[in-house]
Amino acid sequence: EGLKLLRESLKKVQISSSTAKDASHVFVVFGASGDLARKKIYPTLWALYRDSLMPKGTQIFGYARSKMTVSQLREKCVGTVKAKEGEEELLEQFWAANHYVAGSYDTQGDFERLNQDMVAVEKGIANRLFYLALPPSVFKPVTSMLKAACMSPSGWTRVIVEKPFGKDSASSADLSEHLQKLFTEEQLYRIDHYLGKEMVQNLISLRFGNMIFGPTWNRDSIASVTITFKEPFGTQGRGGYFDEFGIIRDVMQNHLLQILCLAAMEKPVTTSPDDIRNEKVKVLKAIPSLSLSSCVLGQYSGDPDSDDPDARLGYLEDPTVPEGSSCPTFAAAVLKINNERWDGVPFILKCGKALNERK
To answer: Strand 188-191 and strand 330-335: pairing?
Structure first.
């Protein structure tokens, strides 16, 4: 039923007849060899392809520094990109539409080579979408190279920037200024992939579509709100990347704050992105600065008695983690919202790696 509604929704998108007939579409995943691409992006692309929700003939390009083939990329994704019984042929077709280009993130020649490979598979009007599943440290060079060498010559170009969007307010503002010089706002999408989870997407419908919650979703009926993110595994060789950010920047200040805003905001005037964003901003403005006394930080250590070899390794025993790192892998914080609806109600955010369950 949900798939049927999604197909009908996509059909309502107005596309000119010339674009519909003549356009080709290319989806480029930067950071294709990384964890986010393996766990989230390629499984999603496969689901879209399998359910015919992707424009016919779409070509998918993976780009990363690692030298590998499409076959090796497929092997990396074997646990996340799976075919059910009867879908095996479709999965073969999906991987046949994939390509891989190895290159650096700051060399224009490599991006020109990517552009040549895209041109080779494009016909007619060329629409290009670039997904930056990358650490923010390379957003600026990659987007500069995109602008210089990979913009579509005839169709639209879209750039999706994945969180974390900088490391602090200054770096976030600097990145925004850089992107605005290169692309129009219509070409840019800043996203948090956690908002794609079904539970998160259903929060607005759950809250505002049920009359029972209208009079009870407030301080008079709710004593506290706890928002939890748990992973039962450690950094698994990603410690070098994780250590740059820690659990607060990686999870709490984006994933969990977004959920807090959806749970606490007032009903938006419409469901348009701008109106929802405005209500989220009102919630954030009502939250006082967090004090250290309202936080608990921790770092996981290994369990020598565990049967799981990963569980026997602590964070500092990950060879990619800098020696003696004090980077937190667990954080809990209590936030207050100073407005009429939530005055006095603590919002408890908890997140961590290598915990007892996935949640």
So the answer is: unpaired
**27-49 pLDDT per residue, tens:** 999 999 988 899 989 999 999 99
DSSP three-state, residue 134: coil
CB 121 within 8 A of CB 143: no
Phi and psi (nearest 5°) for 230? -125, 135
Query: Which residue in 203, 143, 220, 133 sits closest to 179, CA to CA?
Result: 143
pLDDT tens digit sequence for 308-353? 888 888 999 988 999 999 999 999 999 999 999 999 999 999 999 9
Catalogue the active-site residues.
255
Determine the 3-state secondary structure of 190 from DSSP: strand
Q: In a 10 Å sphere around its CB, with 0-12 CB exposed, 13-18 middle and 19+ buried, how is residue 316 labelled?
A: middle
H helix runs in 2-135, sequence order: 2-11, 17-22, 35-36, 42-50, 70-76, 88-96, 108-121
pTM comes to 0.80
H or E segment at 62? strand 59-64
8 Å CB contact between 193 and 161: no
